[in-house]
Design brief:
By secondary structure, the protein is mainly beta. 4% of the residues lie in helices and 42% in strands. It contains one helix and seven strands. It is globular. Residues 99-114 have low confidence and may be disordered.
Length: 114
């Protein structure tokens, strides 16, 4: 993390089991919390077709508090699928979930936060 003026460089290292990669998302409007998406080890690979196995890779959504330096998993209740992808708005996240078995149809779930 780094401030817009280039100061305050801080490397975030999350120690959460089974999470292979981390991707930052948007900051919440308070400027003190940021959403992250993590992914477990990918299920596709040599001999496994991407379109059939990638969607079997579990992803997780997290809220990181910059002041408290705390990480909390969100979107855990009534989980719709293994793979989540999210589009974020000011106060809402539209979380799309899908699998190869659904033939790309997928489902959407909307969550809010303060």
């Amino acid at each position: 993390m780094i401030r817009a003026d280039g100061s305050g460089l801080e490397t975030l290292e999350f120690d959460e089991p089974s999470q292979a990669t981390w991707q930052p998302g948007p900051f919440l409007s308070d400027g003190k919390r940021v959403i992250f998406l993590s992914m477990e080890a990918r299920r596709d690979g040599p001999g496994r077709p991407f379109d059939q196995y990638y969607t079997q890779t579990p992803t997780h959504l997290w809220l990181y508090d910059l002041d408290r330096k705390s990480l909390t998993e969100i979107a855990t209740k009534e989980r719709l699928e293994v793979l989540y992808a999210a589009a974020f708005g000011e106060r809402r996240a539209n979380v799309g979930a899908g699998s190869a078995e659904q033939d790309g149809a997928g489902v959407e779930h909307e969550s809010g936060w303060e």
